[in-house]
Prior knowledge:
Layout: H1 9-12, E1 23-27, E2 37-42, E3 48-55, E4 64-69, E5 75-77, E6 85-87, E7 93-95, E8 104-112, E9 117-124, E10 134-137, E11 141-143, E12 149-154, E13 160-165, E14 168-169, H2 172-175, E15 184-187, E16 196-204, E17 207-210, E18 214-229, E19 232-233, E20 238-241, E21 247-256, E22 260-265, E23 268-269, E24 277-280, E25 289-296, E26 303-312, E27 322-324, E28 334-337, E29 345-352, E30 360-364, E31 370-372, E32 380-382, E33 388-390, E34 399-407, E35 412-419, H3 427-432
Parallel strand pairs: 11-18, 20-26
Antiparallel strand pairs: 1-2, 2-7, 3-4, 3-8, 4-5, 6-7, 8-9, 10-12, 12-15, 13-14, 13-16, 16-17, 16-18, 18-19, 18-21, 21-24, 22-23, 22-25, 25-26, 27-28, 28-33, 29-30, 29-34, 30-31, 32-33, 34-35
Amino acid sequence: xxxxxxxxxxxxxxxxxxxxxxxxxxxxxxxxxxxxxxxxxxxxxxxxxxxxxxxxxxxxxxxxxxxxxxxxxxxxxxxxxxxxxxxxxxxxxxxxxxxxxxxxxxxxxxxxxxxxxxxxxxxxxxxxxxxxxxxxxxxxxxxxxxxxxxxxxxxxxxxxxxxxxxxxxxxxxxxxxxxxxxxxxxxxxxxxxxxxxxxxxxxxxxxxxxxxxxxxxxxxxxxxxxxxxxxxxxxxxxxxxxxxxxxxxxxxxxxxxxxxxxxxxxxxxxxxxxxxxxxxxxxxxxxxxxxxxxxxxxxxxxxxxxxxxxxxxxxxxxxxxxxxxxxxxxxxxxxxxxxxxxxxxxxxxxxxxxxxxxxxxxxxxxxxxxxxxxxxxxxxxxxxxxxxxxxxxxxxxxxxxxxxxxxxxxxxxxxxxxxxxxxxxxxxxxxxxxxxxxxxxxx
Length: 443
């Protein structure tokens, strides 16, 4: 009897017996897509007439890959043949360039000369070469303790997933926020220590592929706002500064992003363009007081502040007169400041020239008002700290100015200063003064 095509399939049902010895093993054991593999068979017995290979869970014609006649070597493709399969004389099945869709159950059915059949079962798992997954986030900039983070690892492959944080395996504390399949990371009330680079990795026994990092920023603060002087924290302290010396106050805080800064002096805002430092170029009594730094975070909408008290050092006891600016020009204003003026002042008087009544410019009374004297031109203003403002200087304002003070205890003190007023030349004249001397030719 000669068997051709599928004719013997219909006879096999009457003589079917399950052979426990037949084993089917993929070679290599863990193939990846594109590999050439063999489903090797062991445990065949008897004088065999034919083989049937099925790619499916049952001996159904729709799963038939190929039939093979041992004596002639004839092979007949079945409905499940993909064009890559070939039956070997020893019963094995070669598959060229396997694909993930070749994964599944394979059955070998044999027929011997007594028309008895045996079957063996095997399983093939073809692992795909994984493409890099992609991490997406609901947002990459979140506010600490307020916002929730959602990271999703997307991959078309049903591979295992693991996460990395700043290049290292995800810490257990963060790993607790993973979904059961490991593909979604959720963190409620995200913390600043969770800011950084996140990646996910998909893997199977033959392939590993990691995503590009996605960087998470967590906004927080400002916290621990402090004022520094020369890298020394001065918050809540009194800073004593020598007269006419410079002072720089720095405002620092723990904040992300860097906060915006506002400075205030004795409760009144200063113009400082949002800088983190404040410069006092020349310390005088007029600059004594409380300096406050306010740090505002535009992302968290939180703010914090710190204050210091700045005073002239105790070494400044002698009263003096200091023009500001020191060499004013014609048309400018000048302030004759008086560092070290008596704190128990009763009254003071400014004079043009020596301290004599006809030359009196003005007097400051305990009530805080000042009274103009005979030498007052209408351009002079007095202040409670003994300072005298002279506005819109002209050349005739140059010369001696005298200050006379009287304390509550009746102590009298007199100081003099020579005010110099520079000529305000037109710019063309000033330029000519700096022109180089003409060169003399030799003829």
